[in-house]
């Protein structure tokens, strides 16, 4: 009889991140950190994404219910013109954002932090993916914003939703744009002495 895999906690309410982890054979619990994202600052978009991920993972890792578990924290921002763009505040901002992005390329920066609450150690890093935006018309942008989707995702877009037709291509890890880079997660786990296959949920028979 094999031992059950270690508990894995995702410190994020993102359905996309949870889905990607499940598709990769993992079955994390979800505990939302409640970190005030507006209170976290950093010199660059990449460092901001990393600081947010580290904050979320550490807050959840410190909770009694996370004792003995591995905690994954992530946060994404779109870097455009050197600025970090998170979730737009409202429909007006989302519309302006898309009009400024179309026909251009930005870099989706996703910070990742894995805490091992058993060893009290953590590993962190940032994954970067270039996103080439298409040129949706004003009418298409208005329809997309009216759907409500861009208000809930970093950069006001996602590869696995209604904005997919407006993305011409990416250079790098597509999972990173959706919300979590599985190759980076594997490398961070390895730094902590944990093999990702050890965390696979038992296969259904």
Automatic annotation (TrEMBL):
It is an enzyme of class 3 (hydrolase). PANTHER family: BIFUNCTIONAL DTTP/UTP PYROPHOSPHATASE/METHYLTRANSFERASE PROTEIN-RELATED, BIFUNCTIONAL DTTP_UTP PYROPHOSPHATASE_METHYLTRANSFERASE PROTEIN-RELATED. This is Nucleoside triphosphate pyrophosphatase. It is found in: Cytoplasm. Its cofactor is a divalent metal cation. The keyword Nucleotide-binding does not apply. The keyword Nucleotidyltransferase does not apply. It comes from the Bacteria. Signal peptide: none annotated. Gene3D superfamilies: 3.90.950.10. Nucleoside triphosphate pyrophosphatase. May have a dual role in cell division arrest and in preventing the incorporation of modified nucleotides into cellular nucleic acids. Belongs to the Maf family. It catalyses: a 2'-deoxyribonucleoside 5'-triphosphate + H2O = a 2'-deoxyribonucleoside 5'-phosphate + diphosphate + H(+); a ribonucleoside 5'-triphosphate + H2O = a ribonucleoside 5'-phosphate + diphosphate + H(+). The active site is at residue 75. HAMAP family: Maf. InterPro entries: ITPase-like_fam (IPR029001), Maf-like (IPR003697). Its EC number is 3.6.1.9. Keywords: Cytoplasm, Hydrolase, Nucleotide metabolism. It holds the Pfam family Maf. It comes from Streptomyces coacervatus.
């Amino acid at each position: 009889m094999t031992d059950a895999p270690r508990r894995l906690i995702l410190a994020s309410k993102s359905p996309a991140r949870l889905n990607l982890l499940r598709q990769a054979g993992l079955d994390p619990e979800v505990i939302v950190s409640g970190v005030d994202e507006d209170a976290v600052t950093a010199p660059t978009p990449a460092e901001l994404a990393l600081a947010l991920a580290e904050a979320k993972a550490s807050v959840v890792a410190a909770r009694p219910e996370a004792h003995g578990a591995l905690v994954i924290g992530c946060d994404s921002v779109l870097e455009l013109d050197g600025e970090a763009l998170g979730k737009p505040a409202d429909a007006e901002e989302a519309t302006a954002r898309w009009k400024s992005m179309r026909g251009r390329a930005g870099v989706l920066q996703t910070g990742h932090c894995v805490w091992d609450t058993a060893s009290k150690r953590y590993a962190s890093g940032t994954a970067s993916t270039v996103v080439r935006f298409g040129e949706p018309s004003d009418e298409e942008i208005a329809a997309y914003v009216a759907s409500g989707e861009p208000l809930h995702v970093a950069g006001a877009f996602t590869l696995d939703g209604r904005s997919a037709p407006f993305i011409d291509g990416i250079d790098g890890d597509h999972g990173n744009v959706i919300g979590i880079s599985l190759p980076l997660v594997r490398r961070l786990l390895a730094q902590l002495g944990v093999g990702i296959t050890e965390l696979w949920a038992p296969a259904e028979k």
